[in-house]
Design goal:
Elements: E1 7-11, E2 18-22, E3 29-32, H1 35-52
Antiparallel strand pairs: 1-2, 2-3
Amino acid sequence: MKKYFTIIVERDPESHWLVGEVAELPGCYSQAPDLPTLEANMREAITAYLKVAEPEEPLPDFVGTWRVEVTA
C-alpha cells in the first residue's frame, strides 16, 4: 500500500543545507545539501520511522500551511 507524506523544507541559515520535516510524522527529519539528496534521505527517514511506529497509532492528516505577518 502506498502512502503519501508532506515534507516541509527549510534552509539552515548557518550551513545552508536543506532540512526536511515530515508533517505527518512528528520527529521525522533529515538534511542534505540539495533537493535530490534530501528526497532520498527523507524516503530513508520515513521508512525507518514507519518500521518502529506503533501500528495502531493513527497518523495525523496534513491540512496546509500559511504565512502570517507580525510586527516584531
